[in-house]
Amino acid sequence: MSDLPLDTNRLSPDAEAGSGRSRAVKIILFLIFIAGLAAAAASWWFSAQANDPAPVRISAEQAKTLASLTEGEAAEIVIEGTSAHDRNALIPLSGGTLQTLSGFSALSGADGSYGTALKCMTQAIYYEAANEPAQGKRAVAQVVLNRMRHPAYPSSVCGVVYDGANKRVCQFSFTCDGSLLRVPMARQWKESLAVAKAALTGTVEPSVGTATHYHADYVVPRWAYNLGKIDKIGVHIFYRFKGNWGNSGAFTGRWAGREAIPSLDMARLRNALNNSLDAEFAAASDEDLVPGLTVTKLASDRHAEADVGGRIDTTKEWRLSIPDPVQASSGYRELVNGQQAGIGNMATPALAVASGKAGKITP
């Protein structure tokens, strides 16, 4: 029997089995990886579909109707004050997928309209949310941009902000209630400016989605029941149009390509501010005022409740007057001369009394 050469490439049965298991594991891992990629792609696709649905056609008449949902009687305040917080809490959230819009960056820093748009956006953020948290400021900016892209509203930043400023009803109250005449606070203005710059260069605040409306939580406007409630951020509650009108597909408007601040009736603004100040004064509690005065009681006051203590009552049109120095000097001399004359007339009787020679003094 002759010896046969050994086949060094042939594996033992155990080795062949181990190699097969290794290949199987690799195949399984590969399939899992492919499945993961497919799941991620599907998730992205459905998410994109949710945030970018088919465009919603809105006619001019429909746009007008949508804008009127928060005007006239619908804008009336149903409840205000502390009880409004509880009533607002009872309004349910609209639910559903919160759709968002892409960032807005059509304006360029070198564009002549950029500075104007930046001013309008900063004013909106400052006068509407100066003391709100950063998210609240971003939410207000997002509402401005959402409106600009919705057919129911003007197609520019300033157009949205100053919508109705010279009409009976304005969309942003600060443009018609005289607030613009008040000098902004430096820190809050700087913060609002930073948020405005970010909003005009693509930053999106996703927490409010496609919101086009908001109101403070201490009031309940009638329209709050007609729109879809999204969320509350700080003191503001945000809303969207219901149905397809509030879906991202409805925001088909494009930036007008020009920004301008309308001419304002300054006399009207001054009157509005004065009326506002009068209303604030009238709303003050009687207990906070010194009786009969238009000044607030101070902790340092030490007067009886019915005693004004000599403080100035501005309602009596009292005015400080300083006597003429010449007249004051002349009056003083006359008074002194009169007293001296009186003393001279009394000298003789006084001496007589002192000597005991006169028992009665006759004038």
Which labels suit this protein?
6% strand, disordered C terminus, 363 residues, elongated, two-stranded antiparallel ribbon, three-stranded antiparallel β-sheet
Distance between the termini: 180 Å
Number of strands: 5
Strand order of the largest sheet: 2-5-4
Q: Residue share in helices?
A: 40-55%
> Structural class from helices and strands?
mainly alpha
Number of helices: 10
Strand residue content:
5-15%
Flag low-confidence runs.
Answer: 41-51, 289-318, 347-363
Give the overall pLDDT as a whole number. Answer: 77
Describe the structure.
It is elongated, with a radius of gyration of 40 Å. Residues 41-51, 289-318 and 347-363 have low confidence and may be disordered. A three-stranded antiparallel β-sheet has the order 2-5-4, with helices on one face. It is mostly helical. It is built from ten helices and five strands; from the N terminus they run H-H-E-H-H-H-H-H-E-E-E-E-H-H-H. The chain is 42% helix and 6% strand.
